[in-house]
Structure formats: C-alpha cells, structure tokens
Amino acid sequence: MQDGQWGRDGDQLEQKVMEIINRIKGKKPPGALFAALAIVLLLLWGGSSSYYKVNTEETGVILRFGNFIGFAESGLHFKLPFGIDTVYLVKTGRVLKEEFGFRTVLAGVRTTYTKKDLEDESLTLTGDLNVSDIEWIVQYQIADPFKFIFGIKSPEETIRDISESVVRKVVGNSNVTDVLTTDRAMLASAIETELQTILNNYDIGVRIVTVKFQDVNPPDPVKAAFNEVNEAEQQKESLIFQAREQYNREIPKARGVANSTILEAEGYAVERINKAQGETRRFLDLLTEYRKAPEVTRKRLYLETLEAVLPLLDEIYVMDPKGTSALPILPLRGTPKGTALQ
Prior knowledge:
Elements: H1 5-27, H2 31-48, E1 51-54, E2 59-64, E3 67-72, E4 75-78, E5 85-90, E6 96-100, E7 103-106, E8 112-114, H3 119-122, E9 123-125, E10 131-142, H4 145-150, H5 155-172, H6 176-182, H7 184-202, E11 206-217, H8 223-292, H9 294-309
Antiparallel strand pairs: 1-4, 2-3, 2-5, 6-10, 7-8, 9-10, 10-11
C-alpha cells in the first residue's frame, strides 16, 4: 500500500503546527491570540491536504472514512481534508517485474546482474531427480488497484511465493533434458497459465504479462559434462538437418529423371505403334490393289523399288539373258556418265 504524496505533506504540516503550538504554549500568550493562531494554522493545514496529484502511470484509490468510494485517474484532484479522504497511489500503467535466481544490480546500456546467495531460489529438482539451475522472471500488471492493496497482505511476496511453487511443480514434472534444451518455451507457457489461474482464485487484481526463463543451466559440478552432451546433441541435429537437405535435393532430381525417362519411353512406344499401324494400312492397301490387278501392281512395285535402289549404286551392269557378256547401252537416267549398266 502507498499513501498519497499530498497526504504525507499534510502529516508533515501537522507536525509543524503541533511544534508551533507547543512553542506558543511555552510562552503563554493570551487565550484569544492562541485560539486565532490555532485556527489559522488549522485552515492552512486543511487547505494543503485538500488536493493531491496522480501521475501518468498511477491510479488513485480513494477511501472516505476508511470505505472505498472510487478511483482517481492521472491529474490534479481535490479531496476532503483532515483525514476524511485518504488516497493510495498504485502503479497500474507499468509492467512490474519479479526476478528469481538473480537480481539486477545496475540497469542501463550494460545491465549487470548478481546471483550471490540466491541458490535457494534457482536450484530446482526435475522429474528424473536431477538438479537444474533456473533463473526466470515474472512480469505482471495491476488490473484492479483496490484488490491489489486491500485484497491480500503483501501482494508482491504472495506473487513471488506462488511463482516459485508453480515453477517447482512444472519443472518437477519434466525431465532435465527438456528443461535444459528444447522445451523451455512450452514450460514457461504452462507456468504462466497455471500462475494466472491461481492468482485469479486469490482475486488480488493481477494480470500476468509473461513468464520467461532468463537462463537455465546445470549445477556447476556437472556443467562441463552437460556441455559435452549438449554439443553432441547439437552435432546430431546438424547431421540430421544435412541429411534431410541432401534428401530434399536428390530425391526430387531422381524423380524428375525417372519421369522424363518414362515419358520418353511412352513417346517412343506411341511412335512405333503408329508407324507399325501405318505400315499395316499401307500393306493392306497394296494387297487390295494387287488383288484387283496383280500384273500391273507387281510391275509398279518393281519399278518403284528400282527407282529407290538404283541411285544408291556406284556401278550398274546390264547382262544378256545368258549372263555371258555385258551389253553396250547408254547410261540410264540418274547414273554417272560412262558407267556400264549390268
């Protein structure tokens, strides 16, 4: 709980008034003068305690005769003096933070931390009976300032106690490998959810912003061995990644070559089938013509064959029917000049 700044100034003024009155009593002035002076000082004190200021990140909780009557936003406000109204200022616009296992010594460009004498907070037993050294932070905002300052005694300490309890429970249900390596984010999310649930049951007007593991390490006596294991795990993951990369590069390439070969084979098959079917139709057409006129068709086929074959020969000889000598004959059309015909 935090009293209003101007309420504290009023208490200081009250002390000064009492000092002046005691001095006047020592000098024993006339009764009327003493009464007039007391009234003036009382009015001055009442005027100074009748207004207060609420800063930008704050919310004022107003009590009248000890009963809650409302909130005050940022700015300058008036209240009933002489302790009738009391204002408590609560930082509702700021994200507050609780640190566990370490403390911020000097915040700034190069923030420094300390872990001295904080092992009781950071050392946590995991589910497989190993010990881990965990540093974490809990960030929260005050959602209801009245509940925060009047709903429970020492709300900051309550948040710290509950946070430690939840972290030890969640970490205690996990093995040390998950805590130290892969599942930090998942564990932090589980802690945040359970912590918010418990605080809602306590109804102290707090909203958890985030729970984050600042650093998680094995205890110093086994840190070197754990680092070796961690390096081996990282190397294993790297090799798996490289293998998957190689797989993703080679397998699509092989599939592409296979598909190309299949398409070429299918195209060749279609070509051969079409050619065979064409030759079949040509032969059947010739057969039909041959049946109509065998002699003419036979001569036409013979002449067409000679026209195709003779231009490919280097020399041509035409022999007499007995095959004993060559006949003198002029070169045929399409044969080189001076070539004998056989």
